[in-house]
Amino acid sequence: MATKASRSAARLMMAPAVILLLGWMLVPLCMTLYFSFKKYLPLRGGDLGWVGFDNYVRFFSSSAFWPSVIATLVIVGGVLAITVVFGILLAILLDQPMWGQGIVRILVIAPFFVMPTVSALVWKNMFMDPVNGLFAHLWKFFGAAPIEWLSQASMTSIVIIVAWQWLPFATLILLTAIQSLDSEQLEAAEMDGAPPLSRFGYITLPHLSRAITVVVLIQTIFLLSIFAEIFVTTQGSFGTKTLTYLIYQRVLESQNVGLGSAGGIFAVILANIVAIFLMRIVGKNLDA
Amino acid sequence: MARNVTNQRKLINTVLAWGIGLLIFFPILWTILTSFKSEATAIADPPVFLFFDWTLDNYRVVQERSDYMRFLWNSVIIAGGSTLLGIIVAVPAAWSMAFVPSARTKDILLWMLSTKMLPAVGVLYPIYLIFIKMGLLDSRVGLTVVLMLINLPIIIWMLYTYFREIPGEILEAARMDGASLKEEILYVLTPMAVPGIASTVLLNIILAWNEAFWTLNLTAAKAAPLTAFIASYSSPEGLFYAKLSAASTMAIAPILILGWFSQKQLVRGLTFGAVK
Lengths: 288, 276
Prior knowledge:
The complex is a heterodimer of chains A (about 290) and B (about 280).
Chain A: H1 4-36, E1 38-41, E2 46-50, H2 54-61, H3 65-95, H4 101-109, H5 116-127, H6 134-141, H7 149-152, H8 154-179, H9 183-191, H10 196-224, H11 228-231, H12 243-253, H13 257-287
Antiparallel strand pairs in A: 1-2
Chain B: H1 2-34, H2 39-42, H3 57-66, H4 68-99, H5 105-116, H6 124-133, H7 140-164, H8 168-176, H9 181-210, H10 214-217, H11 226-231, H12 241-261, H13 263-270
């Protein structure tokens, strides 16, 4: 079918997108790589020459590095655990027959559409404020002393905020996957006397495994680079300085571009490791 | 008897699901309610839920004090502009990959997707520098282009999956009936592609509207969209709950409404077709 002429036309139609994305990927990435081998302080002398791997050594050995790795892992891990576990439970619940299913689904999905700065600020001020926040009122109602969420339980607070934003995503995807499950299989198992827990463990969960993998991978990629939620709440203090935030501070706040770029390259490599796994699944699906 | 049992189960499901649904939705509901309170009511102890003097004052004050419409307009231009640009670039690309696939189509698609995985912070300074050099810092044009580029892989990918569902036989049939290429594209392909393009546009507007890394780092006063405007409430204005709520409600309302229309497309767009 495809003639030579249509092939070259197709190539021409693809060219703008390919060129744009190639430029968008290569130019800044090469610049970051270039800066990462330089001592470059735009506000204090500018380009001060090549320093080899000095920036990498200093980035990895700085006292802020390991805490930032741990903060990143805690946030990514905590949010993943909450969203996947509750996402599965919610998806199963939403799949059951009920009245007003459509409306409940809308209620559950809504947080995903709230912009990150709004959700972070609403949680920070109206829920987690130690004086006027709703949590403070709730704690006082039960006779407990209000918690200063964002300083005393800073990581928990950030995890709560981010998990609230991403729970809808996990739920929606897992719900879509559950709905594609053949209900006759479950009914047959039920008739054969399989208790609910085994039905879940042997039929539903295996069926969901790929959707769960996809949720974990996609969320990991997005969670590795959360920014606004920290920017408007703690600004990286109280142990919430993630890798992304640390690099941002090095680059834009202290304007140590060489050091920040070395961190940036590290972040790119980290994200790519996750991306490889995701691409494999997506690629497999493309063939099917 | 059996019917009775299912009804009972249905009732339990309903109560449970509605309870959890409302709990998850509560922060949004609370924000909307607070936006209609006076500042004193907003911090009343104990909190007031529904029975207060409803007022629109906060909305008026937010607009007057901070020129809210300007930020809204920036958001509209940036989200709409980047989506439009993205569609213009993506439609031909997705089209050719779906209808004239070659041996490398799959690799190209996956590579495009991989550019989406690039962490923004890794290229923050280069982009910042390029923006300064080209005078694009704090400009709507610059931000529109950046947001177009970061979402382009998703647009192409989504369009590709939609286009691939259009059966090629229909095109052949039209050609056999003597339709010219122009007629084929205009009367056969386009009507079938419109729903797919529309949902792609919808999802992309949502993503661009809520983008909060580049919008925060590349704008100051002039081109700041709503994400940056809300961030400026961080302190100390954030302690004025009613005004914060009014500003927030206005910022999320359009997207909440769009979002409700695009639930299904969300799955397709954000999992790159890996979950259907």
